[in-house]
């Protein structure tokens, strides 16, 4: 039996998933100790229950049309929180983080191909178990899976790609918090003294209530809708040769321009707490919908060699985050939070990275620099770079492209 859940009831289910995640974290000390995000805990629990129900011939189909606008609103709040002084402070570290991410992409694919050869798999399976799905996510994975199936007659490539992307999304949400937690405790790290003044979306504590007014809410909604409208228009009309920017990148850039243009000479000050609250809510709902809709049964079909490959990929990302990313970014609190974010976007997706950082900052304090750098890398630069890196590997002689 298949049940179709309406958009309104899907939203209800997502909120219940978030509340369930919060309750589970409060009652299971290990989840709280390692800062696992609420949407990840609740979403995976719901996905597991739905997967078990599927074996009893009961299927649920959620209406997830709200996911796209929720994501656009969230990235708009990131833009509306980005001041030029923060951008200037993050300039050098942005370049350093980008260089680390490029190295990680190269290592992901090199490791994937090497493990595939050792386990007697087609080398293309190594790419599907590399950055194509782990960093690229379901969309990029499906595209390359279809390509490999058509050009190289690689059987089951799309199915393997979807399963790898799902596996990465789950691990990205689970490993980020413990990684940053270990770094923070080992090195006795604390947020910068002036960090509270620069808080951005995702840094609202779960037990914190901020005063809101109808005026601030209405003005902030106006700005967010303007970001969505202008960002969508730019995505549809601006054509850059050889480069296709996702809509949410345009929304983020529009938010940055609005924040700093309106704030010039004190013309208008964006209400930070309201932006922060709306951004946190949208991110949480987006992740809850995404994770409770995961097709976990696809992981059951993964053969042992693919599971070995993906487990080693997860280990690689954590090791890189701890030994390289953390150190080259200054070995401070911001670097630890960014390491949690890297586990998210290098194994799963940018929203997972933000949720990881949110869970850490909710517990230890704000990190505005992390909430600035990770979206720029994870939502924009990494997709372009990943495509170039994959094409570079496909140009190797044994792939036939």
From TrEMBL:
Q: Which UniProt keywords apply?
A: Amino-acid transport, Cell inner membrane, Cell membrane, Ion transport, Membrane, Sodium, Sodium transport, Symport, Transmembrane, Transmembrane helix, Transport
Sequence intervals crossing the membrane: 6-25, 37-56, 94-116, 160-184, 217-235, 247-265, 277-297, 303-326, 369-399
Main location class: membrane
As for subcellular location, the record says: Cell inner membrane
Picking any one GO molecular function of the record gives: glutamate:sodium symporter activity
Phosphoprotein as a keyword?
Answer: no
Q: What does this protein do?
A: Catalyzes the sodium-dependent transport of glutamate.
PANTHER family documented for this protein: SLR0625 PROTEIN, SODIUM_GLUTAMATE SYMPORTER
Q: What is this protein called?
A: Sodium/glutamate symporter
């Amino acid at each position: 039996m298949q049940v179709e859940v309406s958009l309104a009831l899907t939203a209800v289910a997502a909120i219940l998933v978030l509340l369930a995640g919060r309750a589970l974290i409060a009652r299971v000390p290990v989840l709280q100790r390692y800062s696992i995000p609420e949407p990840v805990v609740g979403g995976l629990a719901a996905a597991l229950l739905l997967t078990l129900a599927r074996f009893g011939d009961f299927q649920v189909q959620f209406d997830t049309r709200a996911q796209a606008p929720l994501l656009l609103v969230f990235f708009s709040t990131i833009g509306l929180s980005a001041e030029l002084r923060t951008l200037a402070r993050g300039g050098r570290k942005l370049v350093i983080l980008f260089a680390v991410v490029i190295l990680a992409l190269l290592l992901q694919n090199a490791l994937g191909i090497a493990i595939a050869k050792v386990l007697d798999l087609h080398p293309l399976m190594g790419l599907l178990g590399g950055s194509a799905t782990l960093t690229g996510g379901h969309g990029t994975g499906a595209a390359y899976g279809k390509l490999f199936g058509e050009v190289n007659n690689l059987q089951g490539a799309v199915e393997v790609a979807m399963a790898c992307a799902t596996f990465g999304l789950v691990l990205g949400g689970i490993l980020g918090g413990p990684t940053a937690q270990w770094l923070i405790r080992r090195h006795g790290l604390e947020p910068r003294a002036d960090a509270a003044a620069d808080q951005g979306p995702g840094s609202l504590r779960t037990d914190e209530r901020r005063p809101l007014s109808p005026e601030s809410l209405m003005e902030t909604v106006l700005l967010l809708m303007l970001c969505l409208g202008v960002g969508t228009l730019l995505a549809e009309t601006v054509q850059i040769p050889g480069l296709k920017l996702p809509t949410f990148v345009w929304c983020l850039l529009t938010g940055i321009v609005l924040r700093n243009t309106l704030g010039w000479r004190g013309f208008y000050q964006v209400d930070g707490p309201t932006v922060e609250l709306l951004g946190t809510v949208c991110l949480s709902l987006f992740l809850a919908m995404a994770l409770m809709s995961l097709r976990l049964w696809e992981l059951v079909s993964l053969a042992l060699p693919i599971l070995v490959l993906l487990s080693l990929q997860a280990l690689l990302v954590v090791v890189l985050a701890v030994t390289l990313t953390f150190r080259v970014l200054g070995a401070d609190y911001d670097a630890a939070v960014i390491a949690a974010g890297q586990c998210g976007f290098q194994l799963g997706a940018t929203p997972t990275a933000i949720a990881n950082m949110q869970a850490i900052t909710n517990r230890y304090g704000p990190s505005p620099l992390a909430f600035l750098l990770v979206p720029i890398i994870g939502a924009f630069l990494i997709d372009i770079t990943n495509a170039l890196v994959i094409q570079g590997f496909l140009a190797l002689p044994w792939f036939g492209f």
